[in-house]
Design brief:
About 30% of the residues lie in helices and about 20% in strands. By secondary structure, the protein is α/β, with parallel strands linked by helices. The chain folds into two domains: about 220 residues, Medium-chain alcohol dehydrogenases, catalytic domain (Quinone Oxidoreductase, Chain A, domain 1, Alpha-Beta Complex), CATH 3.90.180.10; about 170 residues, NAD(P)-binding Rossmann-like Domain (Rossmann fold, 3-Layer(aba) Sandwich), CATH 3.40.50. The strands form four sheets. Strands 3, 4, 5, 8, 9, 16 and 17 form a seven-stranded mixed beta sheet that branches.
Length: about 400
């Protein structure tokens, strides 16, 4: 089969690799019909390179049709399914409490990390990912989300990551009707966090430096601001001088405005794997501009919800400010299956209350994935969300 593989820093390529096979009774094999590029895939493209091996298959936002079903999978050939990015058993102590991203059956104990993820480096189990023609799905009896046949892929695809991650971000922000919510970053997670916040009755103010991203959010009733100090003051002014009740940081370690950490990112990507891993695990390598902005902006007694990914184990935190302002901070990998019952009716609603029809900016064949990664990383051509079609050919 064809699959997108990691080849080095800022280098991915489509290669022919062995087809996946069933290994456990609860496995399934799907033929991938749509698979998206996630903002966190760019971390593999850049700073998490020391945890990647040449030839690793990447991608963690797939859906498709079951072509082989293990006897314990509970699936049948032909079922249309969305696959969550985290792999969970559904039966362990953590899963029973809705903490599927901490599944004790699939935890990567040798790395000290949580549940295995599709296509996301040795940190999370080196599981082959979904930017491919076919995908083996472990624990498909719990993980696979059956969906109907009537709606196009893009209505369901984002149940794999974007929608539940954004929903959890807003829920962790403790937003209720009438609250004010600021969203930092209007990539896919930020876009959907802002729309979900508004759907739940909050006034949403969002910040992003890219005009096309601001324009997309504005179409959905979000008040938008360019990145920089004037935006922060304008949001303060709009919230009675206190700041918003909650802030969602949907940027993470890719934030602008952190020149020292930017150099650390570049250094990690250039070091040999062992030295690069050591720097990630023992140095402050995160670009914390967005997090510091969130801490500065949120009102006293407010809540910060982190959905952007941070990777440095020793990145500094302004603990005095967090304590003095009595700020609650919540974060973590999304527990995808915990939110599906809330989200499935919304994506199937003909009124499209979350605007899922207005998120994908580029649909490309899998063969064009290397170009898509470069375009997404450099925010060229108004790129907000790319969906790859493994069955399409160049020029279609």
């Amino acid at each position: 089969m064809k699959a997108l593989t990691w080849q080095g820093k800022r280098r991915v390529s489509v290669e022919t690799v062995p087809d996946p096979v069933l290994r456990e009774p609860t496995d399934a094999i799907i033929e991938v019909t749509s698979t998206a590029i996630c903002g966190s895939d760019l971390h593999l493209y850049e700073v998490l390179g020391p945890y990647m091996a040449k030839g690793d298959i990447i991608g963690h936002e797939p859906m498709g049709r079951v072509v082989e079903a293990g006897p314990g999978s509970g699936l049948a050939v032909g079922d249309r399914v969305v696959i969550p990015f985290n792999i969970a058993c559904g039966r362990c102590w953590m899963c029973e409490r809705g903490l599927h991203s901490q599944c004790e059956t699939t935890q990567v104990r040798e790395q000290g990390t949580g549940a295995r993820l599709f296509g996301y480096s040795a940190l999370y189990g080196s599981v082959p990912g979904g930017q491919a023609e076919f995908l083996r799905v472990p624990h498909a009896d719990f993980g696979a989300i059956r969906v109907g046949d009537e709606l196009p892929d893009h209505r369901y695809l984002f149940l794999s990551d974007v929608l539940p991650t954004a929903w959890q971000a807003v829920k962790y922000a403790d937003v209720t009707e009438g609250d004010t919510l600021a969203v930092l970053g209007l990539g896919p997670i930020g876009q959907m966090s802002a729309r979900i916040g508004r759907h739940l009755g909050a006034r949403v103010l969002a910040v992003d430096p890219v005009p096309e991203r601001r324009a997309m959010a504005a179409r959905h009733g979000i008040e938008v601001f360019d990145y920089g100090d004037p935006a922060i003051e304008a949001i303060r002014d709009a919230t009675g001088g206190r700041g918003p009740d909650a802030v969602v940081d949907a940027v993470g370690m890719e934030a602008h405005g952190s020149p020292v950490a930017k150099l650390a990112h570049q250094a990690v990507g250039l070091l040999p794997d062992a030295a690069g891993r050591a720097m990630m695990e023992h140095a402050g390598v995160d670009r914390l501009a967005a997090l510091h902005t969130a801490i500065d902006l949120v009102r006293r007694g407010g809540t910060i919800s982190l959905s952007g990914v941070y990777g440095g184990a020793a990145s500094p935190m302004p603990m005095l400010t967090l304590f003095d302002k009595q700020i609650q901070v919540r974060m973590g990998q999304c527990n995808v299956k915990a939110w599906i019952d809330d989200l499935l009716p919304l994506v199937e609603d003909a009124a499209d209350p979350l605007g899922v029809d207005d998120l994908v900016t580029h649909r490309l064949p899998l063969d064009e994935a290397p170009r898509a990664y470069e375009m997404f990383q450099k925010k060229k051509d108004g790129c907000v969300k790319v969906v790859l079609d493994p069955k399409a050919t160049l020029g279609t």
